[in-house]
Amino acid sequence: MRIAMAQINAVVGDLQGNTRRICEAIETAAAHGVDLVAFPELAITGYPPEDLLLKPDFVAANRQALQEVARRTPAVGVVVGFVDGDDHLYNAAALLYEGHVAGVYYKHRLPNYGVFDEKRYFQPGVACPLFAFTPAPIAITVCEDIWAPGGPPQAAARAGALLLVNINASPYHAGKWRQREEMLRTRARDYATTIAYVNLVGGQDELVFDGMSLMVDHRGNVVARGPQFQEGLVYGDVDLEAVAEARRTGGPPAAPPGEEIATPTVALGPHRPSRRGALPPTLVPPLEPLEEIYQALVLGTRDYVRKNRFRDVVIGLSGGIDSALVAAVAVDALGPEHVHVAFMPSPFTSAQSRRIAKTVSHRLGLVPLEVPIDPIFQAFRETLRPAFAGQPEDVTEENLQARIRGTVLMALSNKFGWLVLTTGNKSELSVGYATLYGDMAGGFAVIKDVPKTLVYQLARWRNRRGELFPQELLERAPTAELRPGQTDQETLPPYEVLDAILELYVEQDLPPARIAERGFDPDVVERVVAMVDRSEYKRRQAPPGVKITPKAFGKDRRLPITNWFRGSARPPAQPVEGTPARKTSKSRTSWPSR
Question: Residue 421: which of 549, 538, 328, 536 has the closest Cα?
């Protein structure tokens, strides 16, 4: 049996465009002699459609689009994701054959964690039909259904399905493909079935879908693997007779009592194998770790810009590593003709920053627009002098510079229709080392989920393709240059320490005391945790950005702004027997200087 897995870049809400993409892929796959072509989860609507699902006309239009795909389906099987139902909605997969909808499967396991809110919209399915499409039946499941043992995949295999088609919209984070591939190999071996796992590709707001569709035989061997971050048809031939032979000596285990799932059979009529020649399977090797992350940033940026109908972007290029990396990603995503950079020196901008900004711009094929902010800064100071009389200069004057730069960038955006890309990284956003309405002003935050230490690693990796970032940029101490001689480490712990603490606190949710037990200074831990907790109001106002870690700020991590809970890096003191516990006061941790 020849299978094609179509990892398409669907656009949320573009029902006509998604229908066209699906039908074009069906035509191409049929020309290559496939018996079955499968599309991602909710391919008709795009994923995730979120509260579009609350609009009855959207759901009705999606069903009409499915009928249009069915009408244009030749004598091959087509599995496609859509939304079914009226009063109760289902995350559904249809099997189309010879011009009609032959059968429908409803997703059982509805994820409701991290970026997922499926229980807000959908009802779970209760059955797992088997489709007699070939001499042996096949089954269809949707994404989460296969991630845990048991459930519909096991029930289908137990009922005789030799091929399991699992359609997905599985969001990317770094290295996730390894977990995904090992899980699929385990399921295939445990259930003695071939699995065709098709995944969405493309960017949707903060999410990136990496494609990398996979076909695994009943022994757990990878038969076909699609590319990462690219559309395409992934082909593979599977030997269902070999699967049936293996079943004679051992099949999938029975479901535990109480977990039985109905597996009705849907007859599709006689199967007419396609006439075809040999076709080598698609077998693309995975990307190396840093290239994988970089390509996720590129795809996420390109799709956010293009799908929101922008043509050009603008970036404030400071002479620092963050803005340089964002500019490189933007050029790789959009081409230099669509990327503009503004260099906005202040009285504290060093000659080194000017030199680096000029070098990076030249190597990227960009011509920087220089907009000195000193006259504007002095005008602000004069205007505020009466109000600030008797007050020493402090972080207020530093933040003024960042806000002036944000205003300049937004003025360029308004005048020319350019989307502003912000340049803050995850380390800064975590602890609030950023200025609201200043360097946080913009439409898309390319590296908001990239820790500072990873920023340097990505820059060094990108230099392997041609040196963009000069060595002095990679070696200089990070600085905001908002006052003479300023460096980040005057306010923050070294980034190697900071990022390690942030990973444990933000991504793993470890309490401060557990973090300190790992060898970190309790004072440093408490200070970092306090900065993270007190900066929630800033993060809530930040633009969206590409998710590349298991837990990004935003949908992954939803904490209240108003929040009095504070953990401690020290175990609570034990009172001496017979004496009351002494009340202690803790001074407020200082705010970052930005």
Answer: 328
**Catalytic position from the list 27, 119, 128, 143:** 143
Active site residue 128: no
Instruction: Cite the DSSP H helix spans in 335-470.
Output: 351-364, 374-384, 395-416, 426-431, 452-463
Query: Does an H or E element contain 168, and which?
Result: strand 163-168
pLDDT of residue 587: 31
Short-list 154, 197, 155, CA closest to 177:
197
Return the H-helix or E-strand segment holding 222: strand 222-225
Task: Give catalytic status of residue 41 as yes or no.
Answer: yes
On whether the CB atoms of residues 49 and 105 are closer than 8 A, the answer is no
Report yes or no: 485 and 460 within 8 Å, Cβ to Cβ: no
The catalytic residue among 41, 206, 398, 481 is 41
The CA distance from 424 to 410, in Å, is 16
Q: pLDDT by residue (tens digit) across 302-345?
A: 999 999 999 999 999 999 999 999 999 999 999 999 999 999 99
Six-digit token string for 313: 């972007």
Burial tier of 358 (Cβ tally within 10 Å: 0-12, 13-18, 19+) = middle
Q: State the alpha helices, DSSP H only, in 150-274.
A: 151-158, 176-191, 240-247
269 Cβ neighbours under 8 A, 6+ residues apart: 97, 98
- Joined together, the tokens standing for residue 420 give 């502003």
> 464-493: buried (b, 16+ CB within 10 Å) or exposed (e) per residue?
eeeebbbeebeebebbbbbbeebebeebbb
Query: Quick check: helix, strand or coil at residue 247?
Result: helix
Percent of the chain with pLDDT over 90: 81
Distance CA 223, CA 210 (A): 19
Q: Which two tokens stand for residue 114?
A: 């991290």
224-278, pLDDT tens digit by residue?
999 999 999 999 999 998 998 888 887 777 777 777 899 999 888 666 666 677 8
pLDDT tens string 17-43: 999 999 999 999 999 999 999 999 999
Tens digit of each residue's pLDDT (9 = 90 or more) over 525-539: 999 999 999 999 999
Alpha-carbon distance of 329 to 338, in angstroms, equals 12
**pTM for the full predicted model:** 0.93
As a whole number of angstroms, the distance between CA 508 and CA 523 comes to 20
83 in Cβ contact with 280 (< 8 Å): no
